[in-house]
Amino acid sequence: MSRDSLVLHQNRPSFSDRLIKLLLQARSMAILTGAGISAESGVPTFRGPDGLWKTYRPEDLATPEAFAHDPRLVWEWYDWRRQLIARCQPNPGHYVLAEWERRFKDFLLITQNVDGLHRRAGSSRMVELHGNIWKVRCLREGAVMENYEAPLKEIPPHCPCGGLLRPEVVWFGEPLPVEALRQAYAAAERAELFFSIGTSAVVQPAASLPLVAKQCGAYVVEINRDPTPITPMVNESFQGAAGPILEELSQTLRRISS
After folding, report:
1. How much is the pTM?
2. What is residue 180's predicted lDDT score, i.e. its pLDDT?
3. Domain spans of the chain?
4. Distance between CA 188 and CA 232 in Å, rounded?
């Protein structure tokens, strides 16, 4: 464990003076979120004991090859996922992060999630590293458009031009969007305060962002239910559900600011 790490395991978190001061005075913040924050809203995760990959093989449903082989099967699975997500609502963690966006002049929310819950909570200064399940891309024209049908009226869906549509998400074997990744690394490099929330910190390249921020001088805070590979390296680690911890932290800030 690094000498300046502070790992907390309390049900009711105790926040350091340094963290509170940075939240009140820092000029720049970057936040990385993963499946854990959306799991608290009921969105199924991929990893873990009940994850989707325990039931489905990624190569059967989330690769370009799978889509080329059987687009209907892939879309049936995504239609099922979209219907599940449509019933979910943003939780307090999503709303706190949207509130923090308004607090910081230099702010970027970097999410690995494709469920769109951050946007529904009011976040706008963000990059979606793995895409968005509510967007589709035409394979004929390349146009990207929003589609909120759940269930879909047509499987597989088609563009008005007649071209086949695919989910605008990053599949296994595909690179992350270059511009989104550039923005994410730039935000990590200039952040004074960096939060890693609800992510296992094992999926690259996103997993390297907290460490990039730390190397560039940021104060790094982790919130996750379980320890991760970066837990020994961060400045503070809170182990528990993200929503209640973020809400408690937000309430602490309001009390101090009032």
Report:
1. 0.90
2. 96
3. 1-42+90-130+176-258, 44-87+133-169
4. 19
